[in-house]
Write a structure and sequence with these properties.
The complex is a heterodimer of chains A (432) and B (216). Chain A has a six-stranded parallel β-sheet with strand order 11-10-9-12-13-14, sandwiched between helices. Chain A is elongated and about 125 Å long. Chain A contains twelve helices and 14 strands. Chain A has four domains: 2-43; 53-164, Immunoglobulins (Immunoglobulin-like, Sandwich); 173-194 and 386-427, no CATH class; 204-380, 3-Layer(aba) Sandwich (Rossmann fold), CATH 3.40.50. Chain A has helices at 2-28, 32-43, 176-198, 207-222, 238-257, 268-284, 303-317, 331-341, 356-362, 371-380, 383-416, 420-427, and strands spanning 53-56, 64-69, 80-87, 97-103, 126-131, 144-152, 155-158, 162-164, 226-229, 261-265, 296-298, 321-325, 345-350, 365-368. Helices cover 46% and strands 17% of the residues of chain A. The model of chain A is unreliable at 28-43 (pLDDT under 50). Chain B has a domain at 136-206. Chain B has seven helices and two strands. Chain B has a two-stranded antiparallel ribbon with strand order 1-2. In chain B, a hairpin with a 2-residue loop joins strand 1 (97-98) and strand 2. The mean pLDDT of chain B is 90. Classes of the chains: A alpha/beta (432), B mainly alpha (216).
Amino acid sequence: MKRETFNVKRDYARSACGAVLLLAAVLCWPVMPVYAQYADQTKKTLSPPQDVRAFDTPSDGGGSVTLVWSPAPYDSAATRYQILLREGTVSDPMAMTVVAEFPANQHYVREFKWPWWTKPAAGDQHQFTLRSGKGVELKNGTVYSITVAAVLSDDRGVAQPLTVTPQPNWMNWNQINNLFLALLFGSIVFYAIRTARKREIFLRRIPGLDAVDEAIGRATELGKPILYLTGAHDMSDPSTIAAAVILGRVAKRTAAYETDLLVPHRDPITMAVCQEITKQAYLEAGKPDLFKEDANFFITSDQFSYTAAVDGIMLRKKPAANFFMGAYFAEALLLTETGASTGAIQIAGTDSDHQLPFFVTTCDYTLIGEELYAASAYLSREPVQVGTLRGQDIGKALILGVLAAGTVLATLGVMLDAPWPQLFLDLFKDVK
Amino acid sequence: MIILRRQVPLLITLITGLVFAAQYYVPHPASEQMLTSVTKWLQIIGGFALVLGVSSLFHVHAVKIRRKEAGWGYSFVLYVSMLGTIAVGLWSNGKEAVDGTMTAFGWIYNFMMVPLQGTMFAILAFFIASAAYRSFRARSREAAVLLIAAVIVMMGRVPLGEYLIPISGDLSQWILNVLNASVRRAILIGVSLGTVALSIKIIFGMERSYLGGGKE
C-alpha cells in the first residue's frame, strides 16, 4: 500500500516537473532567438577596418609610411588595432609581422599636428605613421606590404594588404606657411628700405645708445680704456654679428677720441672678424696709426675661466666704460657686478632674455632684445639700416594684429564649436 | 684685390645664405647630408682658428712679461700652467683615465679645473644678493614694483613663504605665467624679427661691416 502510494506520488511529481519545464519553455520561447543571436555575434570575427589607404608619409626625409582608415563601431579601449608589415608584395596577412599595436580609440587624424593643407583625411579618421626605428627598418625605394587588423579577445578582422614605397621628399609642405611669412616679412623689409631712401624716418630715442658717446667721452677724460665684450656665442649667432657691428661704430669713436679699446674674446673666429672690423673703423676715423693688433685678444672658450680673466682685467685696468653686447649666460652677473664695483659706466645689449634681469639691475643702460639689432641703424642712421628697422616695426604691427585676430578666432571656434577658425590659426601657427 | 676682399665674400654669403635658408624647407636626406657636411667644415675651421686664438694669447702675455707691465706675474703663471697642461696632456695621450686609473691630465682637470670653475660659479650666489640689495631699495616706482613682485614670487616659491602667506603661491604663479611670460614672449618676437631682418641684410649684402666695414 505504501509502495503504491509512493509510486503514484512519484508519477504526479514527474508530471508536475514536465509541466513546469514545458511552461518555462513556452515562456522563454521569444527570448531564445536573442540569446542565439548574441552567441552567434560573439563568435563571428570582427569586420576588418574599412577604407584603408597606405601612402608614403608626405613632407619627410623618407623611411616612413602612413596608414589611414575609417573609424569602426567597435572602436573602444577594449578593441585594439595592429599594424602588419612585410617587405615585398604579400597577399596573405598571416605572413605579415605585427609592428605596432594600440587601443582602437587612439591615433586619429586630428591628433597629428599636421596643418589643414596637408591633412590626409578628415579628423575623425584613424591615422598611423610608421617610421624606421624600434625594430622596424623602412628602406627608401623598397616596396612593402602593409595593413591594419582589428583585434578583440580572440577575434581578428584584417584588412586587405596594400603596397607602399617610402620615399624622401624635396619639400616640407607642413612648413609652407613659414616660408610664406618669411617672404612676406622680407618683402616688407625691402619696401621699408626703399621708402627710407626717399624720405627720412623717425627713430625713437634709445638712451643706451645715446650713452655710448658719453661713456667714450668719460673714458677719454679719465685716460682709461674701454672694455667691449661680444658675448658667449660664435659668429654664427646673429647676436654676435650685431655685437660685432656695434663694435665697429664704437671703435670708430674710440679712434676719434684716441681712447684705448680692449676686446677680450671667447671665440677665435669672432676675434679675427672683430680685428678686421676694428682696423677698418680706425682707418675710417683717419687714425690707422692708433690701431693696435692686440686690442682684440683671445682668452679662452671656457665660460668661467673667461669670466675670471675679464673680471681680473676690470679690477686691474679699471676701464671707464664696459660694453656687454651679444649672448650671455651665468657669467652675465659675475661680469657686470664686478664692473659695477669698479665704478665704470656699463652698457649692455642682449637677446638672452634669461639674463636681462641681471643686466637691468647692474648696468646703467640695457638694450633689451631687438634694440641690440636696432643699435647699428641708430648709430649709423644709414637709410638701409633705418629702413630695416621700420620693416621690423611693420612686422611687429602685423604680428600684433594676427595675435588679436587669432584670439578672437580661437574664442569663436570654442564658442561656436566650428572648425573654420582653425584654418586661419594653422596658417599663422608656425612663425619661427 | 677689392673683388677678393669684398665681392667674393659677399657672393659666397649670398649663395650659402639662400641655400641654407632653403635647406630648412627641404627634408630630403641629401639636404640633411649637406648641412652635416657644412657643420663639419665649421668644426674644422674652428680647430684651425684655435691656433689663431692661442697664438694671440701667447703674444699678448709675452708682451706683458717682456715689458714687465703691471700684473705680469699673472701672465707668467698663465704661461707656466698652459705649457704644463699641454705637456701633461701630451704625456697622457689626452686621456683623463686609463683602465679606471686617473692620469695626471685627469688629475689636473678634476682637481684643479673643476674646483676653480665651481668656485667662480659659487660666487654668483653672493653677486645675486648684492645686485638684489642695490636694485630692491625701492628708490623709484619701477624699483618698488620690482621689489613687490620679487617678494611675492620668493614667498610663493618656498614652502615656508606659502605656509605664512597662502595666497602667495597662486599670486606667484600668476606673475610668472601671465605677466612674466607675456613680456618674455613680446621680447622674443622682437628678437626673432630682429634676427630675420639682420639675416636678410647680411644675405643680400646690405650689412657688410662684419667684413671689415666700409661701403665700397
